[in-house]
Every structure is written in structure tokens, then in C-alpha cells.
Amino acid sequence: MASATEALPGGTAAPAARAPAPPPAPAPTAYPPLQGSQLVLGTIALSLATFMNVLDTSIANVSIPAIAGDMGVSPAQGTWVITSFAVANAISVPLTGWLTRRFGQVRLFTASVLLFVIASWLCGLAPNIGMLIAFRVLQGLVAGPMIPLSQTLLLASYPRAKAGMALAMWSITVLVAPVAGPLLGGWITDNISWPWIFYINVPVGLLAATVTWAIFRKRDPGPQRVPLDRVGLLLLVLFVGALQIMIDKGKELDWFNSGQIVTLAVVSAVSFMFFLAWELTDKHPIVDLRLFTRRNFTAGVLSLSIAYGLFFGNVVLLPLWLQQYMGYTATWAGLATAPVGILAIIISPWVGKNVGRIDPRRLATVSFFGFALILWMRSHFNAQADFVTILIPTVVQGAAMAFFFIPLQAIVFSGLPPERMPSAAGLSNFVRITAGAIGTSLFTTVWEDRAALHHAQLSEAVNRGSGAAVQTLAQLQAGGLSAEQALANINRTLDQQAYTMAVTDLFYLSAVLFLCLICVIWLARPQPAAAAAGGGGAH
After folding, report:
1. Which residues contact 491 (CB under 8 A, 6 or more apart)?
2. Cα angle at 300 between 86 and 244, to 5 degrees?
3. How far is CA 438 from CA 13, 79, 148, 270, 424, in A?
4. Is residue 111 scored above 70 in pLDDT?
5. Which pLDDT score is estimated for 455?
6. FRET partner for 325 with CA separation of 20 to 30 A, picked from 93, 131, 353, 438?
7. What pLDDT does residue 26 have?
8. Which top CATH class is 33-227?
9. 3.40.50.300, 3.40.30.10, 1.20.1250.20, 3.10.450.350: which CATH number matches 291-539?
């Protein structure tokens, strides 16, 4: 899942040919690590807020039919409940660095959580689809700083040697929440009512905000007077908004066969080019794109984002295939995917403890190789695969997830001074979230395209010259079906086979891409143990 900065006086950009160096930041106040119950409660509060935020990106997905039915709109209109949140969130996440300087870390985080609670409550009370979409936009906007700042505050709470443990706690919530969202959303919608997918945020958010403020309020350096780059902000809104809507609506509108999608693509591309030029030359950029001049930041963000896009695309695809073509209910599809968190929770603390002693590139290599192995196992699924066959790679995947976020985040943050941490967290999370959205859209589109190809190839075998096809039709008609019903029955079987072959194609492709990503992560420079563990001065 861009930020705004103040232009120079008069609204003009600096004319220098080379990008001016950022103004020297005031020396940050050094706060000692938290200890005892404060450390435990602070970690729980920050993790709860992160979990609530990530959960909300996926919890509404399975509730769209119920929401659309209650409000008297089509399911296509109902999908704007998801799109509106995603667009607003994608715009606000990269603004974290500027907002942090303007308001202070703890103030911004606490306000973000409280506003998220209010927006969630309003979503549940929304009387019509228009109001619900408006409140989801508000929810997405205020949610932006929560994830990057939870990361920053966690790192500042732990001794540098134990920063890997902080990242372990954070990564568990980010990886498990997208899996839990559809399960929880489906259960609430079926057994209570859809507004409660928003109401459950109220007690969780109030608890997280109260504990966070009580523990961290004296650890906030406070606001600074920083100018607002209005031009950069406008370009960011245009670039990210057009891109996110294009991603969300591309499949529905048949991608570039739609004039609307072409227009969005042009707006996004042109805005991005202007945004890039403006931010790299402006004296007070709203998004610190100069972070990409750091080799480890670039290698870490690139590998993290591509891997997350692959991971999230597969997270979406597997339950879709199980429910639509393998006869699984939502509950059973959830049971087949939920155990992914078991090994992640067990192994992550060990990874966090050792990320300062073992080269993070080696740990990330274990993760990518593990994902490749798991997806290669899934590429051998067929339409007769039983529950245990599907469950085994899911359980094993938890081990790969444990080695995923922690070492990659350690690489991203290595060598960064404390004052650049919020900007780095916001920018890296923006690229990661956007990659996840692109991965989801690409995977579902390619899945249908490959399924159509396989269906056409399989259908060629169903003709009067095929003894097996003639015999099958005769058996179905002998069982009481008409010729049309028998052909429809065969077509459903072909659909199941075609979509199963298509999903295994994507599993295999994902396995190959994960192996290729191993090369990308080794572009990063090795870091001293302390820097690898602590983000190079995060404390």
C-alpha cells in the first residue's frame, strides 16, 4: 500500500540541476527502550492497531453481496466499498513522513487510531451506499499512518539488539491478518450482520489508542513547522488514485479494451512522471524519494514488494479456487488456509532474535526458497486433491512467512538515522501495499485467461469422434438427463479442470519468480550485526 510537501515560497520548484540536499534535521531526542510491563503492553497495543488496520483491508470482501443486497445496489456498485478504502489508504500511507514531522509520532498515531474508530463506527451506521463509500474513504485516509508508525514506535521501544524481536511481532500481525479477514468477515456476516465487521474495530481501537497514549506520550519529540508541498500532494493524489482505481476496476472493465482504463493509465503515468521530477527537485518533498539512492533500501523494498505481490496474489487465489471449483464452503476454505499462521507464530521469535547475528540476506533466501518449494507443491494439485493434500503446503508456508518480513525489513531500515525512519516506513509500506493490489488484480485476471485457454483445448476433445465423450454422454442420458443437461454437466467438469490447470500454472510461475527474487536480495550490502538488528540506528 506518496506524501505531500510544501513548495518553495511562491510555489516554485528549486531550479538547481542537482537535487538539493534535505535541510539538516534537528538532532532527535534519544529515548531509552521500554522495559517490563510497559514493553509488553506497548507491543500488544501497537500490534492490535496494526492487526485491526490490515484486517480491514480484506474483511469486507466476503460481505459485499450482503452489503449490496441490504442497500439495494448491484454487487459491482458494492465493490466500491473495497476500492474506496484502498484508494484513500494508498494515498495517505506515503504521507506518513511529512505528517509525522508536522504533528509528532505519538500524537499522529493515536489520532489516527481514534479517527479510524470513529470512521468504522460511521461505516456501520451508514444508511446508504453513498454514505458508506464516503465513510470508507475517511477510514482509508486516517488509516494511512498507522502501519508505518506502529513499525517505527516498536523499533524505538526495544533495545537495538532486540529490534529483530520487535519486527517479529509486527510481521506476524501483517501476515496473519489478511488470512483472518475473510474468515472473520464471513462468520460475522453469516451469524450476526455486516455492520459488525466495522463495529468490532471500536473496542479494539479504543484499547489500542488508550494504552499507546498512556505509554508513549512522553516519548514524542513533538511537532515541527514544516511546509506543505501542495503540488507534490496534488500529483500524488492523481497518480495513486488513478493507479488504484485502474487496478481495482481493470478486470471488471476488460482492462485496456476499456476507454476508462486507458484514461486512468494515462493520467497515472503522466502524474507519476511529474511527481517524480517535482519531488526530486523540491526543497521540502512530501515523499522522501531520495531514500531510493540507498542501495539497501532499494534492494529491500524491491524484493519485499514483488514477493508480497506474489504472496498476496496466491492468498486471494487459493480460497477462490477452493470455493468456486472444488466445492468448499467459506468455512472449509478458511480451515484450509488459516493454519498458515501456526509455524509463523512459532518460528518468528527465533528469527527476530537471530536476525542481528545471521546475515538477513541468508534468512530472506530461506524464505524465498521456502515459498518456491510450497508453490511448486501446489502446482501439482489436481481436481481430486483432498483436504490433507491442500492443507500440508499451507501449514509449511508458515515457516517461510516467519523468515519473510523480519530480515527484509532489517535490510530496508539498515543504516537509516531515526529521523528518516517514519518516511522510510511509509514509503516502503506504500510500495508493498500497491504491489499487493497489483498482484491480486494480475493473478485473478491471468487465472481467468489461462482457464479460458485450457477450457478451449479440453473442449476440442468433446466431439462425436471421441469414444470417451460419446460414452460419457450416453451414460449421463441413461441416468435421466436430457442431451442439453448432459452437455452442461460435462461443461462444468471441463470448467473445474480448466480452472484447476490455470491455478496450478500460476502456482508454478510464482515458484519460479520467488527463486529469481533470491538474486535481487543479494544486491543489498551486508550490514554489521547491530545495524541489521536495529535498522542502523532506529533507536
Report:
1. none
2. 20
3. 32, 16, 20, 19, 21
4. yes
5. 83
6. 438
7. 45
8. mainly alpha
9. 1.20.1250.20
